Amino acid sequence: MANYGGNSVTELSARTGDLVKVISGRGYKFADPTAVASDGARVWVANYASVTELSARTGRLVRVISGPGYKFNNSLAIASDGAHVWVANYGDGSHYSVTELSASTGRLVRVISGPGYKFNGPSGISSDGTHVWVANGGDGALPHSVTELSARTGRLVRVIRGSRYKFNGLPIAISSDSVHVWVANSYGNSVTELSARTGRLVRVIRGSR
Phi/psi at 168 (nearest 5 deg)? Predict the structure, then answer.
């Protein structure tokens, strides 16, 4: 877990939930960490303007990735599929983008941005190795939406939007298992399920039980 206020990462046992360790210190360069992702070998932590890579086995620092070329700017979400690392940059209200890194080296692959992607405050990101899904939860002029990219090329596949998806409830997080895509709509108290193959709406789950 990324601890925004504590500039640390907490590791728990997946089997028992017991505390394993808390990782912190100047060397890690944690700076308002907002999200964490792991591919089983590496752990990637999204900071405000950098990414910290850790060893999943030991928690030790591997590298800190930063610099103007990466376009990290209020990076709210991060995902890894083992080959790529994807960072969603919320920006300062206008400079929205997605940064792709090599998972093996941490090197910059590309920065994806431009009006065609319809990024609007990207605040969630997920990848299954084939697709990359970006949840756009910004408060700008564009409607709330989900942008799908190709994990191989970074090219735009489609932008999913419309009232029936109920994304107007501020889509703030997203996850995919290569069959389904699940979008958490913060203000709408709902979850939208999409088909990962077609992007079509499966259902909107809402209400209390």
Answer: -65, -5
Q: What is the pLDDT of residues 66-124, one digit of tens each?
A: 999 999 999 999 999 999 999 999 987 668 999 999 999 999 999 999 999 999 999 99
Q: Which two tokens stand for residue 196?
A: 């990962």
Shared domain for 206 and 143, answered yes or no, is yes
Task: Note whether 126 and 190 are same-domain residues.
Answer: yes
pLDDT confidence band for 138 (50 / 70 / 90): confident
Examine the domain organization and report whether 179 and 207 are in the same domain: yes
Rounded distance, CA 167 to CA 187, Å? Answer: 9
CATH number (domain holding residue 143): 2.130.10.10
| Residues 140, 194 contacting (CB under 8 angstroms) | no
pTM of the model: 0.93
Q: Which range of residues forms the domain containing residue 20?
A: 1-35+42-66
